[in-house]
Structures
1.
Amino acid sequence: MSKDGHRFSPERLFFLALLLPFYALYGLFLLARAIVRAWRKAKGLRFALASEIRCPNGHANPTVGRFECGACRAVYHGWVGRCSVCGAGAAWIACDVCGVAIPLPWER
Ligand SMILES: [Zn+2]
Ligand SMILES: [Zn+2]
């Protein structure tokens, strides 16, 4: 008969039990990180779905309209966050009223 018993020796089980809390902590850390990422994404999405975005001076700017792409310089019509010509994501837009840059939260 083979002596396979020492694969699960008490020492090894004790060692595994000792490591288990660390694995659990690591799992919790990964889970928390995933939740934070999902939360940030949801927050960005909320901004993306808003019909207007405000500049630092409080002027309302529509998120759908006529914009110039920073990457290919095409003037496109539609949602501000993505150029319909080259597909580049916009990192910011200039306020219609005062020209101050408005960072787009969903691209950060
Ligand atoms: Zn473009
Ligand atoms: Zn403004």
Note: The first helix runs from residue 10 to 49.
2.
Amino acid sequence: MKHDAGAEKSVPVSVVRTSLSCCTAYLEGMLTSRFTIGSLICHTIEAGLQRLDGGAMFGVVPKPLWERRIPADARNRIPLQMRCVLIEHPDGLVLIDTGAGNKDDAKFKDIYGLENEGHPTRLEDGIREAGHDPADVKWVINTHLHFDHAGGNTTRRPDGSIAPSFPGATYVVQKGERAFATSPNERIRASYLQANYQPVTEAGIQKLVEGDVEILPGIRALVTPGHVPFHQSILIQDRGETACFLGDLVPTSAHLPAPWIMGYDLEPLVTLETKKRVLTRAASEGWLLIFEHDPTVGRGRVALDEKKGWGALLPDS
Ligand SMILES: [Zn+2]
């Protein structure tokens, strides 16, 4: 109950529902929103919606609190974006996370409320909308290998075979996460689907990294455990500016308060520590944060709430 009490107090007035500058950047019907980090041109891509159980998304937080932030449907599900990032890097196009892909059957899509159809998915449509050819993606970085983050790593071709969606790319993930995904237990196996990563491994285009390493100049892995043991967030840095693709560390801006942690997280107390550490840095260094699953707030900056030790979204970031 202590957590509940904390959650009650953890809705600071300054956590506003939207960050106007990022929301208005999405024009009607647009899948992409452009931003820059130093000289790097980046785009968020709205790669589709999923709907997950609201209670599972907010863990110990009572429904009367979380449904004020994101209302639930008749099946108690809340809409969640699958937001990816495309970076125009001097080395080539870099894609962070890939949404759910096109391999799921009707039953799966109904359970998770997936809406991401396109050519073949909304992710590829978004890459084109940003002015690029999906075939030119040179790097694919996954925060982790759950189906809503790595499903678009591979594609089902018209003949039914499954192959990497970006055959010219090198796919990057933490070595520990790749191993974890292949040793699923009953608690985690629903989220790890081998078709999302095994074809990449077999094609010999996977690069496994360990720890907080520089993947490319200005693009760094930041290991952020808790949701899964080897989850990584991705830092984009140039000319003194930093953006952080948080992944499932802070999936929506509603998850900024410390105890607002997903029931899906395997190690919620580890998430708690990771989150405080990362948000403290984000506030003091002025990072632009990218929220992968927020239905409306694509990105924003946080201020540290010194008393409670967590970030509050700035109204105009
Ligand atoms: Zn997720």
Note: The radius of gyration is 18 Å.
